[in-house]
């Protein structure tokens, strides 16, 4: 009986465990909106290689300009601070009206140079960093053109995003600095006008 039972068990067909299993879905590798299916190697790109080469070239040009301007801005901030210090030191202590007006001009002018000297290093450093990010974006595009690796396009988009974020920060700093300088200029004009008025009042007409 045991042998018959064993033979019946051995004659049963093995279950096909894969009969009702669905194939695993293929996960696409998404690179910032451009998808590459790993088993099909299908790529959808809406711009030409010529446009990419042009973008890479102009990005490199702009990056070099940013780095040069950033370095010059940092050097210019030192000059502004020196002029500001010299203006504060060179004020006349005479108390007549015209000298008081000139003293106010020196003070406000020195304040303007001081504001420029303080804000310029921040702008210069950010310009240099943004130039480096733009160079990285250009280099990633060149690597994509040579290797056809879509991950390089993702790297370039990330670098472009950081560049424009830094560009926005420098724009905000420039706007704030411009507003402050405009207020100081208005005060400077009012001070000069007041000093001249007091000086003219000394002469009877």
Structure in a nutshell:
The protein has 205 residues and is an all-alpha fold. The chain has four helices and two strands.
Q: Give the N-terminus to C-terminus distance in angstroms.
A: 142 Å
Q: How helix-rich are the residues, as a percent range?
A: over 70%
Radius of gyration (Å) = 35 Å
The count of β-strands is 2
- Specify the oligomeric state: single chain
Q: Give the overall pLDDT as a whole number.
A: 74
Shape: elongated
Strand content: under 5%
Supply the number of helical segments: 4
Structural class assignment? mainly alpha
Poorly predicted parts: 1-5, 13-41
Describe, in plain words, how this protein is organized in 3D.
With 205 residues, the protein is an all-alpha fold. The chain contains 4 helices and 2 strands; from the N terminus they run H-E-E-H-H-H. The protein has a two-stranded antiparallel sheet. Strand 1 and strand 2 (34-36) form a beta hairpin. Helix 2 packs antiparallel against helix 3 (97-147) and helix 3 packs antiparallel against helix 4 (150-201). The longest helix has 52 residues, at 150-201. The N and C termini lie far apart (142 Å). 17% of the residues are buried.
Task: Give short descriptive properties of this protein.
two-stranded antiparallel sheet; 205 residues; 3% strand; single chain; mainly alpha
């Amino acid at each position: 009986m045991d042998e018959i039972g064993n033979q019946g068990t051995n004659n049963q067909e093995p279950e096909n465990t894969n009969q009702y299993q669905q194939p695993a879905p293929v996960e696409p590798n998404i690179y910032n909106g451009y998808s590459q299916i790993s088993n099909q190697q299908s790529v959808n790109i809406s711009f030409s290689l010529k446009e990419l080469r042009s973008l890479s070239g102009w990005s490199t040009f702009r990056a070099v300009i940013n780095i040069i301007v950033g370095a010059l801005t940092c050097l210019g901030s030192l000059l502004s601070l020196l002029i500001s210090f010299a203006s504060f030191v060179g004020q006349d202590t005479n108390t007549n009206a015209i000298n008081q007006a000139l003293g106010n001009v020196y003070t406000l002018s020195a304040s303007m140079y001081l504001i420029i000297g303080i804000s310029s290093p921040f702008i210069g450093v950010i310009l240099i960093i943004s130039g480096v990010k733009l160079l990285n974006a250009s280099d990633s595009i060149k690597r994509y053109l040579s290797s056809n690796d879509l991950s390089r396009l993702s790297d370039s988009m990330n670098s472009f995003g950081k560049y424009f974020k830094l560009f926005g920060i420098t724009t905000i700093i420039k706007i704030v600095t411009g507003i402050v300088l405009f207020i100081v200029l208005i005060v400077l004009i009012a001070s000069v006008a007041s000093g001249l008025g007091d000086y003219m009042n000394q002469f009877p007409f």
